[in-house]
């Protein structure tokens, strides 16, 4: 047990502080003391911390300290009840603060000021001091009872009793003696309710700590996962209600006990714990099937303990099912080939191929960037196939952990894990029998599951997890991925034999930027589906063909929602959202005609169209461009006879040929664009 030795001037205060420290730390610490009144004063030899009342005493007793331990001067304060009395003293009162020596009297006075009572006049007093004036309203006796050396000084008395240890001092002791966190927490909370502290930093950090703890408690207890936090000695520091419910033990019973002692009968958990870091491993704890995650709690590369998360298997499955993450509800697809829009030769070709594939039972692998319509094709193939009356089940292989995906795909037998459902669980392979199972994001299928899928494809049968019976299935597989699966095979991340099994038929859907003629076609279709009717200007078409459409049709859908609100009859280049107007999306030809367009507009408005004006207006209407680029384009337009360049302020003038070109190509600016041009021109003229 840890030991504290108190050094004090007299027996009375030594006794008092011994009692106080003992009452704070209770049976966790042994306290003894030395004071000048003791005969003989025994040496201090066996202690862990020396606590002294004032600087003088340490000088007087230095030769008695015969051990090398930390020394701490007491920071003392007055109880909240006494502070309330002092606070009641009327402003401008004259107060005598009395203590046994000058240092202590001054110290108490400073303390009263620090605690916030600053509207009174205080004078320190101690034996031997001469007072010029003896007229006081109050006397504060810093002692257990009134001092008797005050002679004829009379006023209202306030007796503070011995001053008590400040919270900041107790925190120091907790830290130096390495007192158990649980005990320390209780001690400090108790103290804070009775002891005022003028150590603002301590107050602030304690308050922040308490608030953070309350917030953490709230979050922990709101979680569906069980959480257990251990310190670096593997003692249980915190656990939430879900965890204590899960293991069937109340928080009180196991808090601050050692993990290995509490869980000595939970072999599975101990084994996982000994592995170090674990991510969502399926196991059984307290007879319940669950996923366990174990991780280090680190700060500045130092480990401060571990966190164990437990999620009940069935709750996870239910949650995924609710959010349609495992299987989109309904077990059918609404898509048919009629929903696939596109006039490009590549689209027509793959639709024809897909129609042929749909007549067979072979697996199909659909490749394509995100949003190219892979799921659309999968559904259309199913609905055009002899299996169309059977289920169509789509599962995303990237959202589930390996273990969950395995049991969802293949099902499991009763007793595969303790706590598994009675009668086991049918997997999606079986459920989709007679229909189609669409394995989306197949490139994310964990390596460990690939042999199992390969066997299912080769043998048209599966074995449930934990079972030994072979179940025949009649399920067609359509898989899809947006990853470069050939490269994954080369890198050893996807099995070559599985790829060959999956891509008996392969559909490679080209991204939209490689089939630009489909863009306006899909756009018009999306608009008419929403009942929107708009004409596309040439400028807008140019944009759609130049932009890279990384999100493919999904991005088109977003643009339609924007245009529905932002446009009326016709969609111009100017109408597209600003973030889409970027220099890199446009080729030189396109830029040239946009410049020609501007010259025409400025000519019609009878505004000059010199290079500087062109550069400013272009940058505002379209996107940032340099004067040099403008000059190059102007030169080219001149060589095409689309403009005549005259020197001086008149600038450039469009020719009849140029106008004809623009009209034929429907390249003309809209009203808004003209307005911007006028505004900029006016601003420029003002500056001249
Ligand atoms: N050719 C097309 N014709 C009509 N709509 C299409 C076409 N291509 C895609 N879409 C539409 O775009 C959206 C995205 O399609 P889908 O979900 O099939 O893409 P995906 O390739 O499976 O995407 P991801 O890889 O992100 O899952 C859907 O609303 C779909 O109807």
Notes on the protein architecture:
The longest helix is centred in the first third of the chain and has 23 residues. The protein has a 5-stranded antiparallel beta sheet with strand order 12-11-15-14-13. A 5-stranded parallel beta sheet has the order 17-18-21-16-22. Strands 2-1-3-4 form a 4-stranded parallel beta sheet, with helices on both faces. It contains 27 helices and 26 strands. Helix 5 runs antiparallel to helix 6, helix 13 crosses helix 14 and helix 24 crosses helix 25. The chain has 5 domains: 132 residues, Rossmann fold; 84 residues, Rossmann fold (3-Layer(aba) Sandwich); 88 residues, 2-Layer Sandwich (Beta-Lactamase), CATH 3.30.450.20; 185 residues, 3-Layer(aba) Sandwich (Rossmann fold); 101 residues, Arc Repressor Mutant, subunit A (Orthogonal Bundle), CATH 1.10.10. By secondary structure, the protein is an alpha/beta fold. Helix 1 links the parallel strand 1 and strand 2. The structure holds adenosine-5'-triphosphate. The site of adenosine-5'-triphosphate has 17 residues, from helix 14 and helix 22.
